[in-house]
């Protein structure tokens, strides 16, 4: 069954130049725990792909390997033609998180990790940091190039805040923002890194129905207007089924199903993973 | 959006033009401030002028009376100089501990490095050679004699280099563990300087001597290095015996330090430090090169201590390892915390206040107590007891310090954009900037929701 799913699924079915992220045999072992086991995973350009699975399935671990936070035990990951995880001799090497960010991967966190006592504007400006050129001595001397760069940075950051409807909150400390605004600000900060791929870790967690609807609209808009590719971890199945082009299901660190929402919904393995064997047979 | 119109020209000419514009804008800005916050502006102006003229006021008016007339001791020019030496160090430690949030308990190491660098390069200590460069010392006089304006930048570079070197092993450490390792360095370095008076060390491989040192006196041991060349320009000395000249020199150094620290704070580097302080993992994920950024904080912070150390060595004309005990690290840290960690003016105030208590108030109290009760122990021995009590009281009633930074002062919301506007002279469009709502209650409510966590 798995084999057929793999064939109808993504891997191998899309031409190479249309693939933004290509992961092959990615494995992560924490001591005795096999968190992610030989995962092959492709993300086509400008698609919205969801990664779902029960708790502890290895979704966030997989995120952390794409962003360079964890070095995989084995496997290879490339992004837009650049290797992120690669073999050097016998050792698996990974780019550092800030190098991955510079290549064009932005992310948000499952539990919001904004810079709490920095303004919304400064949070976004930290996101632009990786693209700024001025040196520390330019800052000390207040060199013209640095001042001009700072002005551009403010314009860019204000533009992002405006797009997210947070313009009036620019001066507010991140921690003083309402929950929904914090979620959006985190996306704004990720967008400030000028990403090609946006990784969203449970963007609608803890949101009510209308906030969730706003968030899904925003994600669609990001793909449509900015041409971003989005990889999503999400537990809210209405969100996942409504928004995704493709869904990959992880369970115990392995891919158990891949396909479009309808295919995944009908897959007995997925039902079993979520509800247990009895439910799948019933 | 006037940003495009107001672009600043490139290169040195553009820089000069921008500085001229900024200087031109000062009177306008000042009168605007005067209208907006009259009392505060006037008070700060008077305070600033008093601070700038204090050495002259002291010399002309206070000195003849201070020991007899005034009920409280007034700091003399030596105390003022030490206030500012510690002020420079507090500003430097604030870069590491306040801006970047890296608790450094070994800061005294860089103070010592600055002082000993000055001692090596401007004293008769290395008597077997004679190098005299632009100095008032007679030709052929034993030792290395470089002028202070050459010594100072070298001391800065040496301190900054060691700041980065000692910072490197701590890069993967956070919080308590970082503090413990820096504490180790703070203990090692003074002992190092104390004991390198007679280095005897031989290392040979298969009969070939790789290195052999016999009785090398590097640091003068517990006696230290004495004398160190005084700093003299155009016949004006900047030493401990030269009155207020040294006061004004160290005041100039302090003002440069304030400007440098403020410019760093308001730059992208300052934001990166803030991000690391708030959440190092998130900062790294958002593209901040944490290794580079933290090393830069360590190096730039250490550079300030290098300035303070080199100046002190030249000012006192001697340096011994006694100045660089672990307790000095703690003293500077207390200055930073009491003054208001993260706020440059706060830590400067902390340095001035504690140096005043330590070097002016307690000795004065000492003579008073001794006059009344000769058997009672001298209060100036209790300085750390008093600092400790101050710290406890402060942490209980005002944990953010005398002059807290915006981050520490609990609820202050409208700052980022306005500060950016002021500093850049740009007007950013904001239709209605609202004062922050108190979203914390909302957050707490959310936190209680069953959250599907995936901990790995």
Please provide a written account of the structure.
The complex is a heterodimer of chains A (282) and B (456). Chain A is α/β, with parallel strands linked by helices and 282 residues long. Chain A folds into 2 domains: 191 residues, P-loop containing nucleotide triphosphate hydrolases (Rossmann fold, 3-Layer(aba) Sandwich), CATH 3.40.50; 90 residues, P-loop containing nucleotide triphosphate hydrolases (Rossmann fold), CATH 3.40.50. In chain A, the strands form 2 sheets. A 6-stranded mixed beta sheet of chain A has the order 7-8-9-3-10-11, with helices on both faces. In chain A, a hairpin with a 2-residue loop joins strand 4 and strand 5. The two termini of chain A are 18 Å apart. Chain B has a domain of 317 residues: ABC transporter involved in vitamin B12 uptake, BtuC, CATH 1.10.3470. The N terminus and C terminus of chain B are likely disordered. Helix content of chain B is 59%, strand content 6%. The radius of gyration of chain B is 25 Å and the shape is globular. Classes of the chains: A alpha/beta (282), B mainly alpha (456). Chains A and B meet through helix 2, helix 3, helix 4, helix 5 and helix 6 of A and helix 1, helix 7, helix 8, helix 9 and helix 10 of B.
